[in-house]
Amino acid sequence: DVKVTQSSRYLVKRTGEKVFLECVQDMDHENMFWYRQDPGLGLRLIYFSYDVKMKEKGDIPEGYSVSREKKERFSLILESASTNQTSMYLCATGLNTEAFFGQGTRLTVV
Amino acid sequence: GENVEQHPSTLSVQEGDSAVIKCTYSDSASNYFPWYKQELGKRPQLIIDIRSNVGEKKDQRIAVTLNKTAKHFSLHITETQPEDSAVYFCAARGPSGGYNKLIFGAGTRLAVHP
Q1: Which residue in A89, A80, A82 sits closest to A107, CA to CA?
Q2: Residue A101 and residue A3 in contact, taking contact as beta carbons nearer than 8 Å
Q3: What does the alpha-carbon distance between residue B64 and residue B86 come to, in Å, rounded to a whole number?
Q4: A42: which chain B residues are within 8 Å (Cβ-Cβ)?
Q5: Residues B89, A33: C-beta atoms closer than 8 Å
Q6: Which of A104, B18, B20, B47 is buried most, with the most CB atoms less than 10 Å from its CB?
Q7: Which residue of A has its CA nearest to B42?
Q8: Do A48 and B99 count as a contact with CB atoms less than 8 A apart?
Q9: Are A68 and A31 in contact (CB under 8 A)?
C-alpha cells in the first residue's frame, strides 16, 4: 500500500510568514506533485518534480516554490503567505499512471 | 498546456437512477484519462481509468467512455447508491513538455438521495 503523508492536517499562519508544507512518500516514486483544491476550481497543479533536485512549474506557481532534496520528500514553500493562499493543499505521487494523494493540509492565512 | 472542463458542477439523483458526468480536454496528445472520487473529508482515490487506445471500460456499476475525435470522455454510474455521493474529478494526462502530469477538471458534486 502506497503511503503519502503530509506533515500537518491543519495549519494557521499569519500574512507574510514563510510556510513549509512537507510531503513524504514511501514507494520510491520519481514523480511528486503539489495541488491546491478550491471549491469550484478543482485540483490545480502548483509544481511537480520528476526527480531529486528537479522541479517544473504547474499551472499556478506564483507565490510558491518547492524543494526536492531527497526522493521521498517534496516540500512546498510559501515565501510570504497571503490570504489568497488559504486553501486545501494536496500532495500526490505516482508512477506512470495512478496518482496517490496525501490526506491534505488545510492552510488558513490570517 | 492541457485544459480540462467538467460538467455538471453539481448533480442530484434518486437512488437507483443513473448519473453521467462529462469532461472535455484540449490537448490531442493526452493519452490517459482517470476518474477520482473524493468522499467528504477524505483524499481523492482512483475509481476507473481509460487509455487513448480504448473506447470504453466497465467496472461493475461504473463505466467510462472516450471519444478521441471529439476530445471528450464521460463517467457513467448505474444503479446509484447513497454511498456514491461524493465529489468526482476527471483528469487528463499527456506528455506535456516530455514529463507526465495530471490536469484535473473542476469536479462534480454528486448527491444520491434515498
Answers
A1: A89
A2: no
A3: 17
A4: 6, 89, 104-107
A5: no
A6: A104
A7: A103
A8: yes
A9: no
Specify the amino acid at residue A45: L
* Contacts of residue B97, Cβ cutoff 8 Å, sequence gap at least 6: A56
Q: What is the pLDDT of residues A19-54, one digit of tens each?
A: 999 999 998 888 999 999 998 899 999 999 988 999
Q: Which helix (H) or strand (E) holds A99?
A: strand A99-101
Whether residue B34 is preceded by a cis peptide bond, meaning omega within 30 degrees of 0, is no
The whole-angstrom separation of Cα A43 and Cα B104 is 6
Cβ of B1 within 8 Å of Cβ of A59? The answer is yes
pLDDT tens digits for range B26-84: 988 888 899 999 999 999 999 999 988 889 999 999 999 999 999 999 999 999 999 99
Give the cell for residue A100.
496517490
